[in-house]
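Researcher: Last one for today. Full complex below.
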Amino acid sequence: MTDLSLSAPAQTGLRTLLGGLYAIWLREVKRAVRDRGQFVGGVSRPLLWVLILGIGLNPYFRGEIYGEVRFVVPYTYLQFIFPAVIALNIMYTSVQAAVSTIWDREFGFLREILVSPMPRLIVLLGKVLGGTTVALFHGSLVLALASFADVSLSAGDIVRGLSLMFLLAFGLTSLGIVIANRIRSFEGFGVFSNAVILPLYFTSSSIFPLDPSLTAAQTKVVYPEWLVVMVQWNPLTYAVDSLRGAFIHFNQFDPKLGPIVLAVMAVFFFAIAWRDFQKV
Amino acid sequence: MSSVALPMVRISGVTKRYGRTLALDDVSFEVRLNELFALLGPNGAGKTTLLHILCTILKPDSGTASIDGVDVIASPLRARQNIGVVFQEPSLDDRLTVYENLNFHGLVYGVPTALRRRRIDELMQLVELTAWRDKLVRTLSSGMKRRLEIARALVHDARVLFLDEPTVGLDAQSRARLWQHVQALRQKRELTVIVTTHYIEEMEGCDRVCIIDQGKILGDDAPAGFKRAYGQQIVRVVAIDEAAASELALAYPDLATRKDTEIILKSSGDAFAESLLARFAGRIRKFSVEEPSLESVFLSLTGRELRDQAAGPRERTYQFGKRGGEHTR
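Model: Here's the assembly. Have a good evening.
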């Protein structure tokens, strides 16, 4: 009897599901690791934002309020954008991870997955977790610049930060898959993802604070109302805010709000992605 | 095995429409255990649609289909454990290595670790890819990719192997090799194979052939049986001009199929050929007598040649339906 002859029925149940989940996750991670371009982007983006934008704008991050010159928020600009750059790196990588969905569809691998006995939920979860892992890694790359940005991190900060980063990456990867399901081509996806990522990033109070020392009425005098509204309605505002809470202990909004928004985003986008995926 | 008498694959009354196009029209057949079963038909005949229904990625409008007694419509996940599929278009991940592609498949189908490793090694040997184990799939030739896909489909305990146009795009040598590998696999393990093709010459080695055209089954028999029943000697004539062709076609209205100056005649034997030659000698540019083959069977069943893709409106509609049937996007 050779190994090719039919053996006992394949193992079933939880072990099979976990094995399949692992295989799909591993494939996503391997593909990302082998894609040099992604890694270059993951390294160059934080360097660009922290080194050039951060250092360049650092001296100007002060304002005169009631005749007194001080930092707008009690932090340097480098410290202020440090958590936001983590969010940016996660955003790009998460949404890019969804390109593999388009890839699978265009190059036929999707069929291999669709005729397998893996339930669709597991397939989707594996894909999202794979993208999340890579995004989490790219987000963590930014942490290497912490001492340069004068951000001192305790172990507790890092653990809290990483779990928030995980939630963010999970939600955004799901969002990427939702977008990818509606877009047919690689080129279209590139354009669309940039058109989603950058506006979301810029209006998340990531690169400028809504001055906390101002009252709501004063804020609306200093900033145009539409901008304030956009910032307040942008869910990423709260994601960035919660990362600031974890890494530099500064919150512009209620600290409880961030984790809640992140969790809701993760669940909501994953649910939509799942609904879409069942129709494939 | 106790299931020898039971059909391995059973399809009954399957109908599938794409819009107004009827892709499958009340199709029924059975495939027995260990059979090498071929679905033969021109492009757009409904072969791939039928295969996709059996592979559980497409639901028929009506009818039932089962594999090893498992209903593919009611319990697709269970049915998938029993099937291995090689699609018409490649479905490998070309950024993974040969081994990684096989291992992915084994994991997703829940093949236990030790068995998975041994089986992958053996399959790689069988399809002669052991030397390429750690090469990225994108560096492989298309023949090698096909072989890898067949090996992959058998990493788990697939009892039925579906091959959708497995030899399209391969050169003659790779094609022959691919069939050798399929035969070798069938000797190593209990395996029912269902293959679709529009290459008629590949059907000769199959146990049974099912001819399908425009969504309908036209016949279902062993190649030899077909040849006995329908196989007819054929006379192929190319006339020197249109006028001669018309006259020739008019002379045998029931027997002739005409395409420009080429006329194909169902021959009743050598005497027929001789009388034809005597009558039209001088006005014939080419003349050949072809012995019964599946080609001639197809011709007599459908009135068309298999490679005859000069499609009329109806065929074009079918082609459209087939494209519209890209249900996996």
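Residues 325-329 of chain B have pLDDT under 50 and may be disordered. Residues 254 and 266 of chain B are 9 Å apart (CA to CA).
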